[in-house]
Amino acid sequence: MVWLLVLRCVNAKFRLTRLVTSVVVNTRLWIIFYYIARMPRAIWFGSGLSLRIPIDDSLSLPQWIKSWDYFFATSKKQARTVWSHISCLCWSIWLSSNDLYFHGKQGSPVDVIFRASKAFEEYLSITSSLKETQPARDNQSWTPPLLGFTKLNIDVSFSVEHKSGCIGFIFQDSHGNSLFAASENISAPSVLLGEALAIRAGLQSAVVHGFLNLVVESDSTELIAYLTCPSSTPPYFAQFVLEDILSLSTICNATFQCISRDANQVTHALVRK
Description:
The protein is α/β, with parallel strands linked by helices.
């Protein structure tokens, strides 16, 4: 299938070149395009991606297609591996055609398959090493606060085009019970300011309802960095709101920490309503 696609692309490119440049086609171009058009077929059926065609009529066409287990992977991980292999093969075909056109170097299907296999093996080794060295993410799921503390989770949905959105916050105790939640529409020049307005609104609500010993959680890494690092310099449009947040935090005895979006799903759903 892939080699037929390449063949059609090559033929289309050839027709376009013939129309744009000249009616008379150079003999060398004929040889090159003939070579390029025939190479993918030999490479495709010489690689491990092809499927042997049954010689009898024991399988219908849908059954035969479904039996192509390697191509129609059952999981996303397997599918990524298959398409990575196909990409390496197509890239190797492209490099081989460039070698022929620009350098007059004619490679064999075996050379193309070997180069694709080598590139594919390097890709697998690199991706596997990255997975081994990648640190595990913390706070993948929401956890309740310690006894005597209250968690305040905030989030914002924001439209950059309209410079407006919706903020939301929710208070939960050490048993995971919801104590209070609210949402409201806002106008702001950036997502950062929207997140800051959400925290300020949550802290103001905490003062009204008498919630103390707060653990404020947000999935905005930038905002939490400004609140936890006094030496950082926030954008001018957010400075006054951040000052309000720090003042309110002393009243509520609040601390700030960053969590993943997966751990902030409840508040995320609140601002999406």
